[in-house]
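S.,

Sequence below, as promised.
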Amino acid sequence: MKFNRKKFLVRNASWLLMLFLVAIWELVCVGFSIPDYLFPAPSGIWAAGVARWEIIMLHAGQTFFTTLVGFAIAVAFGLLVGIAVGTSPTVYRALYPLLIGFNSIPKVAFVPVLVVWFGIGTVPAILTAFLISFFPVLVNVATGLATLEPELEDVLRSLGASKLDILRKVGLPRSLPYFFASLKVAITLAFVGSVISETVASNLGIGYLMMAASSSMDMSLVFAGLIVIGAMGVGMYELFALMERRLTKWAHRSPGGAI
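The prediction came back faster than expected:
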């Protein structure tokens, strides 16, 4: 079988770029003798991660749990409100300005309020993940429903379809590409929300671990925590990208499905 270099580069471009950047990072740290407490080399981060693997996994499990719970609530809420906003001009005019205003507020500002209401721990992290991630789902679902052509709706109504039939059989399937696109954005935001809350109001989670490590100048452990968060985010993004490719093949012309 003939080796296709171009195809190999396209398939593995992200891994090759990552290896290149890690090699440059290691060379810079070693070449300039940068101390670990300022900017650790990848080899030092790897050593710290292996040495404290169990502790990192304990905190990563908490962050993953709070992120998934907050994300699940955000998807359910965003889907329901998005359907209401996308199908009703009255709800759209009533809710949209409020939602835009709410989304303009930095979500870190809510963390002290959540701590007063619920105390430190898991609940503020879940709610922060929810608050920061529901808006993309809502907007994308509403946009997918609102872009349904009026002519198509008229034809379906003339054939006897009710408003619920149009929503269930045409509107929702048509908005699936928008929905999956929003999931890929929302899951990364949910991780941001969880970690923000953990740095302020928790004694468990990657955010707390990074704050504790930075207070003792253990930058290798801080960077190990950052890499674990990034790995979890990439894993969930790829999961939703795979679901998008499987469920919305009809919406994409490229042979590989969604990009």
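The first helix runs from residue 5 to 11.

Coffee later?
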